[in-house]
From TrEMBL:
It comes from Geodermatophilus sabuli. Residues 294-363 form the Glucose-1-phosphate adenylyltransferase/Bifunctional protein GlmU-like C-terminal hexapeptide domain. The keyword Transferase applies. This is Glucose-1-phosphate adenylyltransferase. The keyword Ribonucleoprotein does not apply. Coiled coil: none annotated.
């Protein structure tokens, strides 16, 4: 029996403003994670392990940073003669031309292409979360349910619930109510930005909504489409019992790295049964030089450490000189911490240079230093600061 035809649409076009300086010069899905990965590696690896070979990526902001990483899709087995990886940038030339203004608007603009693909199920996913999920298992559950949409859900903390689409789930997994980023959530069951749609009925509904809303637009999936499907009793929930972490803010990004520093991390990124694949570079082995002290950290290839590193993530090419100290921090590719400097509870973007005896961060909020910034020798960047300061630009 042939497998159902499945198309995955990865929504990778958002500005990613909540990640602040990390997305000033790169697309949010291209943000590094856990040393050697990028955020988009997680949904693409899920596609590979789910045996889904038709993957479209909707891009918009800083597309070059993402295109360079994805290339022809080979790490995820998407370099195919038929199907495989397809990049979807904004375009001109039809009535649906122009800049995408929301996730549902993106789906509306590409609706003719989705119809032409004639697939049995459309999986729409975001690319700012860390998780493992067999999309095909969700598709199988969806196709047997009679639903128009299946929403993958997870439990979140009560104080974090207003950031998400929140659902009330009744008997048989039917979604009784859907509220998009409510001020006062009625539950802590959140959609985790993975949706399986029945393409025909969903696109018909989307066209009707676009006609009704006119210039106001259909906005995000949670603005009009998902509430309408839930109100008509055509939405089902699929609970994800495993690890899921949204990393769309600086505190969440930092906290997610902490999860992977434990002796028993929530996901084994090297598990051959569900490995997370990425476009690898050529890096030599990490070098621990005389005097180096490293504990509870992730150290990538191509790094040189002569100082002390504790509870931190070092991406390829990072240098920690003799007498320098890095604690509870995330250093992205090429960052350098010079002799006698201290970095604490901070995220340093690509090629940041922390001068000798400088101090970055401390106890308190996470400090963020933007790409290629130079911290002067002997200077101090306070805990919770942003360098460069966006208010001074």
């Amino acid at each position: 029996m042939a497998l159902p035809r499945v198309l995955v649409l990865v929504l990778a076009g958002g500005a990613g403003g909540r990640l602040e300086l990390l997305t000033e010069q790169r697309a949010k899905p291209a943000v590094p994670f856990a040393g050697v990965y990028r955020l988009i590696d997680f949904p693409l690896s899920n596609c590979q392990h789910s045996q889904i070979a038709d993957v479209w990526v909707s891009v918009q902001f800083h597309p070059t940073s993402l295109s360079q990483h994805l290339a022809n899709g080979r790490p995820w087995d998407l370099d195919r003669t038929h199907g495989g990886l397809l990049m979807l940038p904004p375009y001109r030339g039809t009535e649906r031309q122009g800049w995408v203004s929301g996730t549902a608007d993106s789906l509306w603009r590409y609706a003719p292409l989705v119809r032409d693909a004639a697939v049995d199920a459309l999986v729409v996913v975001s690319s700012d979360a860390v998780y493992e999920l067999d999309y095909r298992e969700v598709v199988d559950a969806h196709l047997g349910s009679g639903a128009e949409v299946t929403m993958v859900t997870t439990e979140v903390a009560a104080d974090d619930a207003p950031r998400y689409g929140i659902v009330e789930v009744g008997d048989g997994g039917r979604v009784r109510d859907y509220a998009y980023k409510p001020d006062e959530p009625r539950t802590t069951t959140a959609t985790n930005e993975v949706f399986v749609f029945s393409p025909g009925p969903t696109l018909d509904r989307l066209e009707a909504l676009a006609g009704e809303l006119g210039e106001a637009g259909v906005e995000d999936l949670g603005s009009h489409l998902l509430p309408a499907q839930a109100a008509d009793g055509l939405a089902r929930a699929y609970p994800l019992s495993g690890y899921w972490r949204d990393v769309g803010t600086i505190p969440a990004y930092w906290a997610a790295h902490r999860d992977f520093l434990s002796a028993d991390p929530p996901l084994d990124l090297d598990d051959p049964r569900w490995a997370v694949h990425t476009r690898g570079g050529r890096h030599s082995a990490a070098r621990m030089l005389p005097g180096a002290e490293v504990d509870g950290s992730l150290v990538s290839g191509g790094t040189r450490v002569a100082g002390r590193v504790s509870g931190s993530v070092l991406s390829p090419g990072v240098v920690v000189e003799a007498g320098a100290t890095v604690v509870d921090s995330v250093l992205l590719p090429g960052a350098r911490v010079r002799a006698g400097a201290t970095v604490t509870r901070a995220v340093l973007d690509d090629r940041v240079d922390v001068g000798e005896r400088a101090t970055v961060g401390g106890d308190g909020d996470i400090t963020l230093v933007g790409r290629e910034a130079a911290v002067a020798a002997g200077s101090e960047v306070a805990a919770g600061a942003r360098l460069p300061d966006p208010e001074e630009e």
